[in-house]
Design the sequence.
């Protein structure tokens, strides 16, 4: 889900409010929520005293309480957490905004006492219009076709689109070579994830690893893929690898049950296993030297693939789910193509695409 936190801070800025932020995944019980909220309010007031006289007036500004990842509260094991939030909604005069990633029927009472706003990625025309305005105001020589390709590859993320536009404007890509579609439009996402995975393996505790995951703000589905794909970069000992894979497998089982049963009470345990469980199972992480981050480009276009008619054609051949095609078949195809010498790669790609009634251009769209 794109833009939840951004929306909160934008609204607060327009209304002249200060934001008191907390993460429900870190504070899930009644006592934890009250303690965390109290610390946040105290910290906000303390910072106000440290500002210049002109900014001292901010102490009298109104507040917005922002509670992120509210779906991290399970209700049963996190005793009192949900009821505390309901009491806050009924009693406090301070506006409260809560963000969640999934709908959970266990939170029906909470939903009934709130107004719901769904944050979606920006539509392609909106991103194109904003990019065109930047091009016009900055007097850049970038044509409409280039802007359209950037918007297509942004997956609704304006920040990613702007970063790609900046890279092109600064000459990191020679447009005359006609290779813009081969440009990695998800560079900023990869850099963020590379930093995340390295920092996670540098931590020594479950809490530390979970804090790294929280700060990275990576989609649940991608989190599992990122950790698994890059494990061999940081784990060289065979016993460490076995233990790490066992934690990843257990995390995968939990996430499978969550998707099937729509029961998010075990979500905290998923995060424990995929972060702290993996980190603590590795006694000798390899943190030195250059690490080539592994992240298949097609993952960035995940939602587009699911809705693409081309996915239906591939699905007819394999008779499995699109998700399995995305996570298993396409990575295998990519590795198979990469195994060929450069002189033969184009021909093999064309032959492989022809097997599915596709062009090599269509197949490369998700590889």
Sequence:
């Amino acid at each position: 889900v794109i833009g939840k936190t951004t929306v909160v801070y934008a609204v607060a800025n327009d209304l002249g409010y200060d934001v008191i932020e907390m993460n429900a995944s870190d504070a899930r019980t009644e006592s934890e929520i009250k303690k965390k909220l109290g610390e946040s309010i105290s910290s906000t007031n303390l910072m106000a005293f440290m500002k210049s006289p002109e900014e001292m007036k901010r102490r009298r500004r109104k507040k917005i309480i922002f509670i992120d990842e509210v779906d991290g509260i399970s209700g049963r094991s996190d005793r009192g957490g949900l009821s505390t939030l309901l009491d806050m909604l009924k009693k406090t005069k301070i506006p409260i905004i809560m963000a969640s990633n999934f709908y959970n029927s266990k939170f029906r009472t909470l939903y009934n006492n709130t107004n719901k706003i769904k944050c979606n990625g920006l539509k392609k025309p909106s991103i194109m219009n904003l990019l065109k305005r930047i091009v016009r105001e900055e007097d850049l020589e970038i044509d409409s076709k280039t802007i359209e390709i950037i918007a297509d590859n942004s997956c609704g993320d304006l920040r990613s689109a702007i970063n790609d536009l900046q890279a092109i404007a600064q000459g990191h890509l020679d447009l005359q070579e006609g290779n813009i579609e081969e440009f990695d439009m998800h560079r900023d996402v990869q850099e963020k994830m590379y930093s995340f995975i390295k920092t996670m393996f540098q931590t020594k505790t479950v809490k530390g690893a979970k804090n790294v995951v929280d700060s990275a703000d990576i989609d649940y589905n991608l989190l599992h893929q990122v950790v698994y794909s890059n494990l061999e970069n940081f784990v060289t000992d065979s016993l460490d690898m076995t233990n790490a894979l066992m934690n990843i497998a257990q995390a995968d089982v939990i996430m499978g049950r969550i998707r099937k049963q729509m029961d998010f009470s075990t979500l905290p345990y998923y995060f424990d296993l995929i972060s702290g469980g993996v980190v603590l199972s590795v006694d000798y992480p390899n943190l030195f030297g250059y690490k080539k981050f592994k992240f298949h480009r097609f993952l960035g276009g995940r939602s587009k693939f699911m809705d693409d008619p081309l996915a239906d054609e591939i699905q007819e051949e394999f008779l499995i789910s699109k998700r399995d095609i995305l996570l298993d078949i396409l990575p295998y195809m990519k590795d198979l193509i990469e195994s060929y010498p450069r002189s033969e790669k184009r021909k093999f790609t064309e032959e492989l695409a022809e097997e599915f009634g596709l062009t090599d251009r269509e197949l490369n769209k998700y590889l």
Remarks:
- The chain is about 60% helix and 5% strand.
- The domain at 4-112 is CATH 3.40.50.300 (Rossmann fold).
